[in-house]
């Protein structure tokens, strides 16, 4: 069986500490964000807070709202608008997770049964729609057309990314550029928007907006590339996902694209059978992991993640040194080192 490529010498404690620094810097604000989330999940229909609360409380790190809070702090903002907007970002993220799990027919997320596994697809989709609506209510309450434009555009881009992923799923001819377009839309768009609005609420110059937008976009790509590697790692078990979920669903991720391009005719026939035709047999996942190792596909995907991580580091380097700036730098390492 294949094993994930080691990423470096950092131990688990160091990795957790890199995110804890960010969490500690904005701890008071994050408590306020959580209160907004709980308040806004309330509904006269009991199933809505029950289902939404199941996912919100299931162990997510609140990474995207954390980045909104830290970005606003780094830009010198001292008001309260970033609290509501960080909650808005989390609602958008949670809504997309509910919809994703239905599309992917997932039964497990973060070690817990998915909402669709417990309440069914119809309830999950409708509560996801409810959370999107709550997010837009928070945008309207903020009163900034610019913020509304940034977050509504991100929501549309995410939806486009999901549809694009559906189109490329089970297609082994998918190019690396096409795949990067999928994850830029599906994952990186919300990271980018979450960071950018920190500069917007602080009324900072356009250059700072663009730097945070670039930071968020590149860290989002980094995050997703490492997720692609994790799908073929025993580390998945500790993250609450089954090893090989993407493989079993026929998803075309970067490790698959690289191994397919570098393989011979026999190996490509294997990928076509298992991913395009979804004709999977016992031992196929282990064979797939062996091919990924043979062609260095996991290691090269990690190197791609490091490349985008370096771009994120350059973007955040635009800002003067501060505790928040360093914490956002540390998030880059956290995203990459998750696979180790």
Highlighted features:
340 residues; mainly alpha; Farnesyl Diphosphate Synthase; two-stranded antiparallel sheet; 16 helices; disordered N terminus
Structure description:
- The protein is an all-alpha fold and about 350 residues long.
- It has a single domain (about 10-335), classed as Farnesyl Diphosphate Synthase (Orthogonal Bundle), CATH 1.10.600.10.
- Helices cover about 75% and strands about 0% of the residues.
- The protein is built from 16 helices and two strands.
- The protein has helices at about 10-25, 25-40, 45-55, 65-75, 80-105, 115-120, 120-140, 145-170, 175-200, 205-230, 245-250, 255-260, 265-275, 285-295, 295-315, 325-335, and strands at about 110, 110-115.
- It has a two-stranded antiparallel sheet with strand order 1-2.
- β1 (about 110) and β2 form a beta hairpin.
- The radius of gyration is 20 Å and the shape is globular.
Layout: helices, strands, pairs:
Blueprint: H1 12-25, H2 27-40, H3 47-56, H4 63-74, H5 81-104, E1 108-109, E2 112-113, H6 115-119, H7 121-142, H8 145-168, H9 176-201, H10 206-230, H11 245-249, H12 254-262, H13 265-276, H14 284-294, H15 297-316, H16 323-337
Principal-axis shape: globular
Total number of domains:
1
- Overall mean pLDDT: 88
Summing up helix and strand content along with how strands pair, one would put the structural category as: mainly alpha
Instruction: State the order of secondary-structure elements, H for helix, E for strand.
Output: HHHHHEEHHHHHHHHHHH
Quote the beta fraction: under 5%
CATH architecture name: Orthogonal Bundle
| CATH level-4 homologous superfamily | Farnesyl Diphosphate Synthase
SS elements, strand count = 2
As residue ranges, the low-confidence spans are 1-17
CATH domain class: Mainly Alpha
What name is given to the CATH topology?
A: Farnesyl Diphosphate Synthase
Main pleated-sheet profile: 2 strands, antiparallel
- Beginning-to-end CA distance, first to last residue: 17 Å
**Helical amount:** over 70%
């Amino acid at each position: 069986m294949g094993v994930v490529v080691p990423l470096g010498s950092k131990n688990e404690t160091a990795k957790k500490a890199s995110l804890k620094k960010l969490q500690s810097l904005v701890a008071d604000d994050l408590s306020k964000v959580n209160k907004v989330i709980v308040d806004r999940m309330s509904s006269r229909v009991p199933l809505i807070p029950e289902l939404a609360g199941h996912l919100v409380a299931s162990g997510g790190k609140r990474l995207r709202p954390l980045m909104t809070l830290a970005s606003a702090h780094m830009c010198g903002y001292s008001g309260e608008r970033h609290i509501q907007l960080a909650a808005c970002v989390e609602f958008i993220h949670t809504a997309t997770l509910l919809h994703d799990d239905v599309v992917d027919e997932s039964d497990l997320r973060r070690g817990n049964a998915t909402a669709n596994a417990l309440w069914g697809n119809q309830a999950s989709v409708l509560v996801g729609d409810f959370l999107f609506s709550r997010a837009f209510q928070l945008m309207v309450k903020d009163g900034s057309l610019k913020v509304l434009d940034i977050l509504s555009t991100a929501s549309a881009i995410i939806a486009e990314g999901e549809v694009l992923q559906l189109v490329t799923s089970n297609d082994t001819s998918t190019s690396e550029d096409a795949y990067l377009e999928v994850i830029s839309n599906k994952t990186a768009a919300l990271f980018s928007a979450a960071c950018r609005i920190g500069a917007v609420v602080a009324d900072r110059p356009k250059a700072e907006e663009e730097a945070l937008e670039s930071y968020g976009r590149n860290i989002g790509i980094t995050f997703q590339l490492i997720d692609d590697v994790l799908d073929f790692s025993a580390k998945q078990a500790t993250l609450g996902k089954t090893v090989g979920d993407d493989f079993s669903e026929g998803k075309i991720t970067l490790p698959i694209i690289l191994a397919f391009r570098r393989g011979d005719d026999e190996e490509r026939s294997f990928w076509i059978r298992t991913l395009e035709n979804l004709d999977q047999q016992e031992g196929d996942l282990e064979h797939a992991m062996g091919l990924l190792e043979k062609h260095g596909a996991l290691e090269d995907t990690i190197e791609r993640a490091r490349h985008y991580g370096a771009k994120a580091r350059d973007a955040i380097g635009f800002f003067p040194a501060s505790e928040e700036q360093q914490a956002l730098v540390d998030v880059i390492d956290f995203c990459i080192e998750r696979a180790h």
